[in-house]
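Researcher: Hi, I'm a grad student and pretty new to this. My advisor asked me to get structures for two proteins we've been looking at. I'm not sure of the right format, so I'll just paste the first sequence and hope you can take it from there.
Model: That works fine. Here's the first sequence with its structure tokens right after it:
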Amino acid sequence: MSRFSALRLGHFLPSLLLFGAGVLATSLVSLSEFFVSLFNVLPTLLLLLGGAFCMVYSRQRELFLLLTVYLGYFLLDTQTDHFRATGSVREDGALIFHLCCLLLPLLYGLYAVWQERTQLVQDLIARAAVLVAVVGVAVALQQRFPAALLAWLAEIRWPALHGAWMSLIQLVYPLFLLAFIGLLVQYLRQPRPLHAAQLVGLLGLLWMLPRVFIQPQALNIMGSQVMLMIAVAVAHEAYQMAFRDELTGLPGRRALNEHLQRLGRQYVIAMADVDHFKQFNDTHGHDVGDQVLRVVAGQLRKIAGGGKAYRYGGEEFTLVFPGKTIEQCLPHLEVVRAAVEGYLVQLREQDKRPRDDRQGRQKRRAKAAGSVSVTISIGVAQRQAAQLTTEAVLKAADQALYSAKGAGRNRVVAHGQVRRGAVRVATAEA
């Protein structure tokens, strides 16, 4: 099922910036000698560095994407070098160009949707075998039947669909369309920076191919940018794995530690904890417990007042308010506490999950009793003159959290005082 709530513009932003930079650089009448030399060697450097990075982290899909784009670049670059040197196309130029236009979206789309398996060696061999087989067949046909193959590629199969805007052979466009649909579905099912980069990279290839012989640097520039998109996406996901909690989607403890190092002299830290979470897990199971953590994280993510939420660990969360006072933060913390309390978590049996959203809504309306509400306790502390480190403020917020727990839970308590929040409402039992 699609996770539309997980769609992020940030997934596309780096790739779109690289795409735009490539289009802008290509549109320039002339590039300096430095940039010409840079883009001549950049694809090879990206293949070596990006390939090594992918091998270290067992990212075989990205490795073969880089290899596919580089092979297309290498073959076309040989043709464009001859064209720029002599002013004429090589005898096999048209056939090589059409084959590259045909195989690039085919192999790119295939490797982009080909998920990694647990058997890494077997997976590597399978991907390499597909590449060797496809390229081998294409080379064999190109050597044995060049004229017949060229005529077959250049044939207009659907005259009614052919337009004057088609600068490539007609067969290429359905392949690009199929690859685009496959990559779009993949991103909607699993919104990830890599899947977004694959989509933008495919559009970059489609933009590049008609300009290979028209704009001298289009191949070098956009080929480099597409490879860079993939490498940046791998680095982006590596960063998320290190700094973002996979279950809740919130930044993790490592990200929190880095944020704490950049805080100024005035800030507020709040510690939030799910009340009776262990008992809740024991009663309803870990799957429902994970659902509760995601619900709480979703509400904490909406915190206003300039605050940012982090998952501290287990059922604990941290909220940081840079440049704020405790009086400014307390109303926002009360709002998020009440929002968590008022949210009903639907209990679903894993073997009786609804098949679609409509059935799910009907089932929830018919069985409102199959839900529970959870509450959180929050302790909050403001940096004082005597507190020289963020660890001291964290400790003070943690002490306030224990005070909130001891005062009956489901409330916000500031460090040094017992402040009653809203009256705790008993959770509904299934």
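Researcher: Oh nice, that was easy. Here's the second one.
Model: And its structure:
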Amino acid sequence: MSGILLTKTSTFIIGPVATLLGYLMNGIFTVLNKIGIPNIGLSIIIFTLVIYLCMMPLTIKQQKFSKLQAKMGPELQAITKKYEGKKDNDSIMAMNEEQKEVYKKYGVSPTGSCMQLLIQFPILLALYRVVYNIPAYVPAVKNVFTGLVDKLASMAGSSEFLQGFANASYYSKQFSNEGFVAGSEMMKNTFIDVLNKASTAEWMSLKEQFPSISSMVQSTYDTLNEYNNFLGLNIGNSPWYTMKEAFGTGQYLLVIGALLVPILAALSQFLSVKLMPQANSNQSSGNETADTMMASMKMMNYTMPIMSAVLCFTLPAGMGIYWVAGSVIRCIQQIAINKHIDKIDFDELIKKNQEKASKKVKKEVDSSVVLRNAGIRTKALANYDNGMSQKEKDELIEEAKRINLNAKPGSITAKANMVREYNEKNSSK
């Protein structure tokens, strides 16, 4: 099936990123397995910690941009107010140029914050895909299913029975794929997908349906239960299922444990948001795109914790542990970042950026002057024959050309060279 093999995604950008992150997840689980702790829950926590630490420089850069944006906010607002009500092209272009100069002065890009988000977004999506589909990226976990699914794939009625599982609807396209035939790799991979998210009750029903392989079903379940056991919870089951099962058996501590997963997911996520620097809602950056994204992010900051809690009730508890781990890590990370940001002298940083911008402008102006003088000199010398040998004139002309040709890419001189070359080609026709 195109794009899916054991739910491993091949989506543009996200697919390759997920594959790379999968290698990391597999490495973590392998190490834990070798030291006698083959635990998926612990692997998820360590995996999440490593990824967020790697993304920390991007987070710091994003928040530095936010601080600088707050500093230049008044200047951008003044420019916006200056051109308020003017819709003609000249006014719009003039306003954009003035805003660009402000961003240049402070040493930041108008899309600086957007770029950090664009880099982080596919990483976070890929992270979710890996955590949600462990067998697709961790061969040791996939191998636990191999013996069982080999038997099931050759047994009549197995496909129809597994399609009755609660999560089987997510893989309807795999079941209907033309490659899904008895004993095929497609069938085996689909069976692993379904069994990986099957509840305890569904595993027991599988034993009853196929008694000839009941011992194999039980041994597979026991191994997975060992991998999925985290502080007494089977993270392969949803908190909702665990609560219903625990109520029926009188295991009330298990009820509390299952209930804590979605609650902690929501609270920790909300806390991590509150620790982040909050932008002034009444202050516009002067950049429409940035303001729109800021408003959307602010809304998501309040809705995402609630959504996380709701989803955690029905998804495998492993996803809830991932959300809790990610939020707690972000909280600790944010405290460290806030201390780092507070130590930065932004006035000094702005001053340095202004000096860099000034030097860049001066360099471009100097290059323009050199270009103009060199152009004039070349033309004059080409027509000058009083008191100078042809050899001397040729040497001076070549020197002038060398100055032009060695212009820095993107500079005014370089651009002028392009114009000159274009004119020379057309004049020769």
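Researcher: Is there anything I should tell my advisor about the second?
Model: You could mention this: The chain has three domains: 9-133+253-343, 138-230, 347-427.
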